[in-house]
Specification:
single chain; repeat; Jelly Rolls; membrane; Sperma_CUB_dom_sf; 5-stranded antiparallel β-sheet; LDrepeatLR_classA_rpt; ionotropic glutamate receptor binding
Length: 331
């Protein structure tokens, strides 16, 4: 039985990553920028759920494979995950070899729900929030049939008294250059939403060519601290897709983030009762050494634009760019 077919459609995403695996002998994974991904099974998506499988299912899955599946539900929704009875994964003690691992959240370090292998399909799995992280791992020996899994969305019981979430306003910003300030107050200043509306806003930061991005929080406070379902600030590295989610903050502390690409996406989710949540963030575009003539070396593997030196803001990880500025002014 499939649950969660409500009066409104749910927008969700299932992202599958494809990486080479490891063997029982401990062979290290190897990958290069030229390596192309190998299809990690079939998958289909619908507004109210979807289906994904291990590679070659129902035939034997190939050796040396690691697949990551990330499911994201819409606000105020949870995920239910079902595994088909036609299921077989190489058995082992504590599922140390071939296995499926399920975590309650969007990351590989989210709380673990369970690790599964053998001939008995896993029980029904329910997320506590909007995300599930699923890994299928196969080593170099003893392949089996694998699995087929289906998922659907159900209302989050924590919000059963609030009813259906109203349609969210379109809320996106484009930014770029050597530096800039990203702040939640832009939502009201630019008329993206009223003070009483829930918001799911995204800021797209595009660094100059051959540059990466360093993000430093200047101000941060969540109105409903530690309630990620109600408010959070998230950082994506390379796109706004869930597989590029780098960090998510909803507690009392937000850490600086160093991106590996020149495209950063900042996302703020705040429901109707969390609109006093706020943040302010400084982004700095940088290149890796050797530094060119029009750049300043930060002593933290960063070369920033010379115009950012002694500008009153700390653009380096450590304040090298603001040291001795009074001495230079006096001279």
């Amino acid at each position: 039985m499939i649950y969660g077919r409500s009066l409104f459609h749910i927008v969700a995403s299932l992202i599958i990553l494809h990486l080479s695996g490891t063997t029982k002998q401990g062979t290290e994974k190897q990958s290069t920028s030229e390596t192309k991904s190998v299809q990690c099974g079939s998958w289909t998506k619908h507004a109210d759920g979807g289906v994904f499988t291990s590679p070659n299912y129902p035939s034997k899955y190939p050796p040396d494979r690691e697949c990551i599946y990330i499911i994201e539900a819409a606000p105020r929704q949870c995920i239910e995950l079902y595994f088909d009875e036609k299921y077989s994964i190489e058995p082992s003690w504590e599922c140390k070899f071939d296995h499926i691992e399920v975590r309650d959240g969007p990351f590989g370090f989210s709380p673990i729900i369970g690790r599964f292998c053998g001939q008995q399909n896993p029980p029904v799995i329910k997320s506590s929030g909007r995300f599930l992280w699923i890994k299928f791992f196969a080593d170099g020996e003893l392949e089996s049939m694998g699995f087929s899994a289906r998922y659907n969305f159900t209302p989050d019981p924590d919000f059963k008294d609030l009813g259906v979430l109203k349609p969210l306003p379109v809320c996106e910003f484009e930014m770029g250059g050597p530096e800039g300030i990203v702040e939640s107050i832009q939502i009201m200043k630019e008329g993206k939403a009223s003070a009483s509306e829930a918001v799911d806003c995204k800021w797209y930061i595009r660094a100059p060519p051959r540059s990466k991005i360093y993000l430093r929080f200047l101000d941060y406070e969540m109105q409903n601290s530690n309630e990620c379902k109600r408010n959070f600030v998230a950082v994506y590295d390379g796109s706004s897709s869930v597989e590029d989610l780098k960090a998510k903050f909803c507690s009392t502390v937000a850490n600086d983030v160093m991106l590996r690409t020149g495209l950063g996406v900042i996302r703020m989710w705040a429901d109707e009762g969390s609109r006093n949540s706020r943040f302010q963030m400084l982004f700095t575009s940088f290149q890796e050494p050797p530094c060119e003539g029009n750049t300043f070396f930060c002593h933290s593997n960063m070369c920033i634009n010379n115009t950012l030196v002694c500008n009153g803001l700390q653009n380096c990880v450590y304040p090298w760019d603001e040291n001795h500025c009074k001495d230079q002014t006096a001279s």
